[in-house]
carnitine O-palmitoyltransferase
Amino acid sequence: MAEAHQAVAFQFTVTPEGIDLQLSHQALTEIYLSVLRSWKKRLIRLKNSVITGVYPASPSSWLFVVIAILATMYTRSDPSMGLIAKIQEHLPVRYAQCQTVLSAVLFSTMLWLSLIFTMRMCLKQLLSYHRWMFEPRGKMTNTTKVWLTLVRIFSGRQPLLYSYQGSLPNLPVPAVKDTIKRYLESVQPLKNPEEFERMTSLAANFESCLGNRLQWYLKLKALWASNYVSDWWEEYIYLRGRGPIMVNSNYYGMDFLYVTPTPLQAARAGNTLHAAFMYRRNRVPGTVIPLCAAQCERIFNTTRTPGEETDSVQHWQDSDYVAVYHRGRYFRLRMYSAGRLLSPREVESQVQKILDDPSSPSPGEEKLGALTAGDRLIVNQMVRSLDCIEKAAFFVTLDDDEQGMMGEDPAASLDRYAKSLLHGKCYDRWFDKSFSVVIYKNGKNGLNAEHSWADAPVVAHLWEYVLATDSFQLGYNEEGHCKGEVDSSLARPQRLSWDIPPECQEKIAQSLSIAQALADDVDFHVFSFRDFGKGMIKKFRISPDAFIQLVLQLAYYRDRGAFCLTYEASMTRLFREGRTETVRSCSNESCAFIRALEGGEVGDNLTSKYFLKQSSEKHQSLHLFCLYVVSKYLGVESPFLNEVLSEPWRLSTSQTPVQQVELFDLVNHPEYVSCGGGFGPVADDGYGVSYSIVGENMINFHISCKHSCPQTDSHKYGGLIRQALLDLQLLFCPDQKDPSKADLRQTKKDM
């Protein structure tokens, strides 16, 4: 009970002689250090705000401007053309020398701010140019070369994560006519002539009547909103859903594929948790291209809270602890002591105390997390302990299972690893937290992330930093323990107490039953394709992403004998507060290409035509979504929008970004590749496919579907993806001399 006494700052008792007051100096010291740390963090935030606020200039450039103006004044020249004299007239200062210096400083500051504003506007205009993304691989036009040079000039010094926030352009509102045209092009190959004619008629009627009225409201919103989509996207796509977010919304990220840095669970937790807090504390470098970092603000100290009609995302400024789950018990693990971040070895020691704790769960405590896995329920009991979990920096599960690519059947072990990260036991993750770190018994780790507050690339940026810092900066000693010393005076992790009434335990059981049925229905397959990767694809002068998208559609066509509406996630973070846009990658060109390939009629002309077309913009779903939201606010019905927004995505795809910041060299350390991450199927009769292009010779695939659908099979679809990759390789490299390739060509002919 020592830690309980330490938590009390003072005690007093009433005696006949008066009040006996006893102060705990250790507790008062902790309070003082906590306040000191809080103010330090405020000062650091203020400093970072100033640095990013004056970008692309730097705070030191102000001093340079002031000195330059003063120097010119002492040479009896007036760089202000009389403005300094006018400022001097209105200054309430008696001494002429002070008036001159102060007026010069004020003029210099105004000049400096004007230069910053001008540079920021120029950079904003430059960042509005996006044609560089659509140029053929290996070729760069003179326009793009000039643009790249100007961006480097106006970007100035090395940008940080939030540096570009004030310079990013706003997301433009496309014309209704253009959006409808692109939409009709994307659905034409999926409908018969009669259906397409009906949809064309609905679209024409919408464009001529309701469309322009709804468009006017969107343009009005775009005038005052930083992004006319993001707030509606977060609320209506994510927060208003009343079904389970486990499997249906949350996604996961995996550990290194071939390497487990240490087999000790507590040690891996020590480095992982310490690295995560280093990411929160440090000024992390930005990504290679200027992207909006607004989503990064809610990585830590964030929880999705259930509501009656809609959930809410709550974010707290700071949290110095993590919530830990182990064998049905919940703990508060403080990551700071005396105002300093615990060393990895100290975190390992604290985690080991949790692992060695022999106490049993309270009634209802073990499966409490199921409340976040089933339908969205409001639970008002146990407020204090729930509050502790929700305000934690993030959630941690110390899992008793062993996962990873291991055993006699590594392929099956990867499938189990994916399902464990996606849903676990349905009660040993806190699916409402911004992200939950999972540390397995054999030292493997991974994470599960909630989707409403941010998109996968933001979490991937954090996870890439954590994995790289764990192995290449922090490291382990020869015994597998974390490096460093341990402060023996650290208080033990605090066990959370619960008083869960019977009616709440019933809700837990009901939620667990719903979640368990959902988890059992998920069919998952993860595999790595190593025959070739983006290195060979780039030799074809083809975008690797366009190549893989065609592979996925070819495999689906061979599986189902038809094409389907295909969702490909695409970032809009090139714009301020951008989220995710939809690319409808199944097009007239891709369908014609696949039909010709299956009929043995593909020629160079058709091949080049398809991949050239793939470089054009196909985005329109965000615009249609916002038009639909406006129509609902106005209380008007649109048969066209109702049909568009109800179409099922039977093939939902996303690419997991790799090496957003190059923290280590994959060429020299090829074994430290991550397997990426994945998500559950979007449609009950469809597939969810996540893929990551790793290095030059490896592509990882995560495929999900549902056992309850007799038409889907993740392993069968995975085999078709492998074959489609090899077939397209043969198409572009017909002179392969490898005997195995020749056999594949013969197999294709026999098909």
About this structure: The chain is about 45% helix and 15% strand. Residues 1-10, 615-619, 737-751 have pLDDT under 50 and may be disordered. The chain has four domains: 2-48, 59-155, 244-516, 521-585+648-657+674-751. The first strand starts at residue 10 and ends at 15.
